[in-house]
Specification:
With 177 residues, this protein is mainly α. It is built from eight helices and two strands; from the N terminus they run αααααααββα. A hairpin with a 4-residue loop joins strand 1 and strand 2. The protein is elongated. The two termini are 20 Å apart.
C-alpha cells in the first residue's frame, strides 16, 4: 500500500466553487459516524496501544476532537474579516497529556460527535457574506475562503481516518498471528 504523505508536507488547492459547500459539509458531518464505525469492534487494549511515539487509535480520535477548537477559531477569523487565519499550535505531546487513552472510547467519540455537530451547525448558519471572505492560511501561505477551509478540515479528518485504519489493521493482524 502507498504511504500517506505526512500532514505537514501536504499542499492544498484552493478556489473551490461555492457550490461545493453542501458536498463538503456532508463529508464533515459524516466523520464522527465513520470514526465510530471504524473503532466499534476494536478491543479497548488495541484502541489505547501505542507504537513507539505514534499516537494510539484513541489519541488520533482525541486529536480530531481537540482541533475542533481551531476550526471554530478560524471561523471566528472569517466572520471578523481578519486577513490571516490563526495558526495551529501543534504540539503532539498535548494529545498524550490529555489522557485520551484513559477514557472510554465511547466518551471520546461522543465528545467528538458533539463538537463536530456544533461546527456543522455553525457552518449551516453562516451568513452568505462570510462565504466570500478571503484570509491567508498561515502555514500554507495561500488564500482561503470558508469552503476551502472546510475541504482542508475534511482532508485532515481523512488523514487521521487513514491512520486509524492502519492501526486497526495492525491490531487485527496481531490477533490473527
Amino acid at each position: 500500500m502507498l504511504a500517506r504523505t505526512p500532514w505537514l508536507e501536504r499542499r492544498f488547492e484552493t478556489g473551490l466553487p461555492a457550490s461545493a459547500f453542501p458536498t463538503v459539509l456532508e463529508r464533515l458531518r459524516g466523520t464522527p459516524a465513520r470514526v465510530e464505525d471504524r473503532v466499534r469492534d476494536v478491543a479497548p487494549s488495541a484502541l489505547a496501544a501505542r507504537s513507539g511515539q505514534s499516537w494510539s487509535i484513541q489519541e488520533n480520535v482525541g486529536h480530531l476532537l481537540t482541533v475542533e477548537e481551531l476550526w471554530a477559531a478560524r471561523l471566528d477569523d472569517f466572520e471578523a474579516g481578519r486577513p490571516e487565519l490563526r495558526a495551529a499550535r501543534f504540539e503532539s505531546w498535548r494529545v498524550g497529556e490529555a489522557g485520551f487513552n484513559e477514557r472510554p472510547m465511547a466518551d471520546v467519540c461522543a465528545r467528538f460527535r458533539r463538537a463536530r455537530e456544533t461546527l456543522v451547525q455553525r457552518l449551516e448558519e453562516l451568513e452568505d457574506s462570510v462565504m466570500n471572505v478571503v484570509a491567508r492560511h498561515p502555514r500554507l501561505g495561500q488564500p482561503m475562503r470558508v469552503v476551502d477551509l472546510m475541504l482542508f478540515i475534511a482532508e485532515h479528518d481523512d488523514h487521521h481516518m487513514a491512520r486509524i485504519t492502519e492501526l486497526v489493521r495492525a491490531a487485527e493482524h496481531r490477533i490473527r498471528t
